[in-house]
Design goal:
six-stranded mixed beta sheet, 9 helices, about 40% helix
Length: about 270
């Protein structure tokens, strides 16, 4: 499935990630490859607690990586900088975005490039800031793997982080995906949380069942809620063009601080 592009450049409404788009990522994360297990076991053995990973940590690490690699002399950082440019490009597909922070030994992956750079830059004073930034990013990428391996083993939703295009400094969105509904194997829940320049924090929560889609937007500012609702006709058209049936589409104001957890949208099943 192709991704749904931003609804309005004027308001920078965040991309909705259709659940089917990330199924290959879910399968890849669930793969019990030898390298993934070894990496996870190594990280777990170094800590007595579950590692912490947030979109803010990744955003900060990306900003540091871009700053320090841009300062390196010659062409030593060109391959990494090219990947960072792809992160910023609106032409990069959602499927590719969800792979940027994955732990892969593919020579063309960011993870493999950073590991190679770390191996040759240690002890070089000129490269020390970039070396530190690379180590930090690799550590966060490994954390995502460990967290998701634990989540899969426990039957919990997995988290996928991906860079948001056209954001300077770089920003990262958090996508939560649950493919294991106890009552219906075809029902999938998802949520997307991100910071936008024009509307602050926006959360999208939804459920998809056999191409029937229920989506709820939540923003802290009332003006942001109105902007989201203004774009609903365009969003509905974009979703229906991909053969989705919209069973619910809402936008609500979310308090800045709340002690309650709002349940995800549900989809009623009729005969």
């Amino acid at each position: 499935m192709s991704e749904i592009h931003p609804i309005s450049p004027r308001n920078a409404v965040p991309v909705i990630v259709p659940v089917l788009e990330v199924q290959p990522v879910h399968a890849h994360t669930a793969s019990e490859s030898e390298q993934a297990i070894i990496t996870a076991q190594t990280i777990i053995s170094k800590s007595l607690t579950m590692p912490v990973l947030t979109s803010s940590l990744l955003s900060q690490a990306l900003e540091s990586l871009h700053r320090e690699f841009s300062r390196l002399p010659g062409n030593s950082a060109e391959q990494v900088l090219e990947i960072l440019r792809k992160m910023q490009s609106p032409q990069t597909s959602m499927a590719d975005r969800t792979q940027f922070f994955s732990v892969r030994n593919d020579a063309a992956s960011l993870f493999a490039m950073l590991k190679e750079f770390i191996s040759i830059s240690g002890g070089n004073p000129v490269m020390t800031p970039a070396h530190t930034a690379a180590v930090q990013m690799v550590m966060l990428m490994e954390r995502q793997l460990v967290i998701n391996l634990h989540a899969l083993a426990a039957g919990l939703p997995i988290k996928i982080f991906f860079p948001v295009p056209n954001q300077n400094p770089p920003e990262v969105a958090e996508f939560t995906y649950d493919n294991a509904d106890k009552t219906n194997n075809h029902l999938r829940h998802f949520s997307l949380k991100m910071e936008t320049k024009t509307m602050g924090e926006v959360t999208v929560a939804g459920a998809e069942l056999d191409k029937r889609l229920n989506v709820g937007f939540h923003a802290h500012q009332l003006d942001s809620v109105r902007r989201l609702m203004d774009n609903f006709p365009h969003l509905r058209t974009a979703l229906e063009s991909q053969q989705f049936t919209i069973t619910g589409l809402t936008a609500t104001q979310k308090p800045q601080k709340s002690s309650t957890v709002e349940p995800p949208p549900t989809i009623s099943v009729t005969a």
